[in-house]
Amino acid sequence: MSVLHRVRAFAGQLALLAVLGALAAFLVSGPVRLANGRTDDGLRGDIGKLPAASRDLTYSGIRMIGEPNRATGATQLEPIRRGLPAPLPGLVSDGWYIAETELSSIRPAGIEPGQCPDLVRVRWQTGADRAVELVGGRAPRSRATPELMIGRDAAAALGIKVGDRVSLGSPQGTAEAAVVGVFAPLDAANPIWADQELAPSACPDPREGQRSEAVLLTDQGGAVAIGARLENLGDRWRFRLDERRITADRVRDLTKAVAGARRRPPERTSLQSSLDTTLARFDEQVLAVRALLAVVQAGILATAAGLVLLAARLMADRRRAEFALVRARGGAVRTVAGRTLRETLIVVPIAVAAGWLAGTQLPGRPADGEPLLVLAVALLAVLAAPGYAALVARHPSFSGHRSDVASLRPGPRRLTAEAFLVLLAAGGIALLRRRGLDAGAGVDPYLITVPVLLALAASVVALRLVPFPLRWAGNLAARARGAIAFLGLSGAGRAPLHSGPLAVLVVAIATGLFTGTVTSTVGAARDHAAELAIPGDATVTGYRFAADTAQRIAALPHVTRASSMLLYQGARVRGDTTPLLTQTLAMVVDAATAGLDLPAALTGARPGGAAVPAIVSPRLAAQLAGGGFVEVQGREYRFTVAQVRSAVPGLGTEARDFMVLPQQAMPIPDFQPILPNRILVAGDGFDPDRVRQTADDGQRAQLASLTGSPQKDGKLAVPAVVTTRSDYRASLEKRGVNGALSFTFAAGMIAAAALSLTAVALAVLTGAPARGRTLSRLRTMGLSARQGRRLLVFEILPLIGVAVLAGGLAGFALPALIGPALGLGGFTSGVAAGTTLDPWFAGGVLAVAALAVLAALAVENVANRRLRLGTVLRLGEEQS
């Protein structure tokens, strides 16, 4: 028989092997690309959110006192860019030279400066003339008098129009200039405008209200003339990095490059950027995500490889009689292996290549080791079947015995190998906890397989322990009425849990439950972080609200409660027996009505006591002798330490030194009330915009009480911001690499569930011929089709039950065992990550087990039809 004829004859077995090989190749390339793409998107999003002063590389010129500035640095722009450390030059999308004054006062010419004038910077910037559209007047052409051009929004805010003459002032001098044009950006999203935004700011004296800060454009001559008179003209060379060209695998090189640019700047310049800090922080998250992805991928690929081996074993077992006939005719073992190899070479490599190509079509960045992994998958899929065929050909037999029946008394070699596997898993966990998955030189291949080794060790232990309760259950079933349970349990006992399918199933379930446990753990920690940051349903933040702002918000529809809170940074604390200790963060809140999780000492505190009870952070409490004095908004209050806590709702997760005081018990005079900068809102369905507007009205009312004049409805220096807990919780999912993390978890659980069902199906197919002969004989004795299905259930349930138990325990224990190496704290906003399992995930495992039973019944039904069980005894057919 030719090779093609054999391929056609055994098309079903080869197709199964090819499909599993293609699936393994797809899992090597596709999901990893998607995860890497999510990681890159997170990095670009983090960089894109940074202000221009942080994300751009900006060199500031250093000049000696009295040295004139001629604004001639434009010619140095390109040489400085080329001199940046690699790979920065190739990532620069645009660059500008800027000659700019420091913040200077601006007022109409001839008018004496007020106490709180508006502030401006006068700038000449390369490329600005091509990025503007004149809406009035003309472009500057400075000669004897410097000429300026102002943005449309800034002109409205400062009250300036074309033709006005203005006076600019600095501590060193004044300069007169003429406003000759008003412009609007051609593209407001152009990064050239990123550091030229019109911004409101508070006056030094709050009673004077607020002012605006703006940037005015001029030409080179105007910048030189104004800078000479104000004596504060500086040079800057600003380079914008294109985040679209940045990928997470280059983060470490970029961090080093930015640090190198900081250490070795061009002569007489200094670098201003915090991009390297952002990149270093992101790199820590990338390492943690890469470690988690490696663990999940190792589990999924190990399961897929196990399925390939099971399919190869199934193919060899089904052709046992054929191989025995070849050997009986004088064929050697290598002959059997060679003919099987030729068959797989025709089908399997094409399928593996197709699976790999399908994975490459998904968006994202490939992993560095993808070609090697695909090659390993191809070799395994091609050589597995010939290898099993060679093993079968060594001991040919026409008996058609069940190849899945294992000895209840394993030999010394097998026991030694199993003990070594258990020790290897235990040693790997100990090593993993000590050094982590990634010590800076990349993920260790041995350490990422530790979870797989633990799952395999759990399957080995289960394989050795479970036959004893199975015997006991079989003995009980033998005494009961009916033979179905006894026959099914006896079948399971003769084939002690199908060691191959059991190992694959345990690895799949352990991987799925591991991802589920980590998902629950991270989710619970993020929920706690959201509770700490946003203790109510929403928090309103601002600069300073009027004392009755909370009552105004509480009167809004669907708001059930609104409480004032003050976070006072820099509160001075001194103990009873010690001098001034430190400045700390003081939180003042009405503990009785705010609804926070606070002790009874604070919620039940009432005015009139000698000292106010307070919650104090551990480090601050160690410096106090049980009490002292704290200064809040210029007034000193006596306190006593009622409780020591490391975290309090409302302070977030980053506060280290803090104190919480109950406002309702503090002796606050009417003439010096505590003015809040936070409002805690409770309710369901309220309008955040109305809450924000009411809060801003409260801020304007407070400013009006200070200045003695009504405030306009314009922009506030610090507008109120309403943050709901649900929005804050959702934002935790979108930060940094959390998109890749969520995808990894979802993909791991879905893949584990699908591969678990496949493992059960292969376990059923492995024993289908022998069960078919048994069923054929039992049907002649009156066994119905329904009873036949029950027989399969009793035989397959121990496999599924033991796999769920062993895999579940291994998957749930993994985060606790290797948690320190996973670095989950980087994804939980600083909240300590314990081990949490959502009941829904546990229910999902049981649902997968139920689906596995149904899948087993369906596969058995199809197999019985193909084996034609009704003709076995009548025609004397020997099924194989």
What does this structure look like?
Keywords: Membrane, Transmembrane, Transmembrane helix. This is ABC transporter permease. InterPro entries: Macrolide_Exporter_MacB (IPR050250). The radius of gyration is 37 Å and the shape is elongated. The strands form 2 sheets. Strands 1, 2, 3, 4, 5, 6, 7, 8, 9, 10, 11 and 12 form a 12-stranded mixed sheet that branches. Helix 24 runs parallel beside helix 26. The C terminus is likely disordered. The chain is α+β, with helices and mostly antiparallel strands. It is built from 27 helices and 21 strands. A hairpin with a 2-residue loop joins strand 7 and strand 8.
Radius of gyration: 37 Å
Report low-confidence residues grouped into runs of 5 or more.
398-407, 870-880
**End-to-end Cα distance:** 19 Å
- Silhouette: elongated
* Overall mean confidence score, pLDDT: 83
Question: Share of helix among residues?
Answer: 40-55%
The total of helices stands at 27
Strand content: 15-25%
Strands, total number: 21
Largest sheet: 12 strands, mixed
Indicate the structural class.
alpha+beta
Keywords: Membrane, Transmembrane, Transmembrane helix
Protein name: ABC transporter permease
InterPro entries: Macrolide_Exporter_MacB (IPR050250)
Organism: Actinoplanes oblitus
